[in-house]
What we know:
Largest sheet: none
Mean pLDDT: 85
Radius of gyration: 30 Å
Low-confidence stretches: none
Strand content: under 5%
Amino acid sequence: MFKHERPLQFFSWIGLVLVLISLALGIPVVLQFLQTGLVMRLPTTVLAMGIMLVAFLSITTGFILDTVTRGRREAKMLTYLQYSAYQTSLERESHAASSTDESAS
Length: 105
């Protein structure tokens, strides 16, 4: 339900977790590269890069779905606003009385 009503928050949290995992994997590789000039753990580097791409994809998905959800809400509201307001009992009685008078004549 949360995913359908607030997709930006949902996918941003997923993206944030993935970014943190990617940074935790990637920072030691970068520090080692700065010290030695070599990338000794290439699979870890590729994994960190892939997780970071998935994180950005998740955040982008959240933005897109949030836009779609906002458009759906606005369409519902416009549909709702097409209907007239609820009539009070006095208005209904006066309308019924006037239509009875018209039909009698």
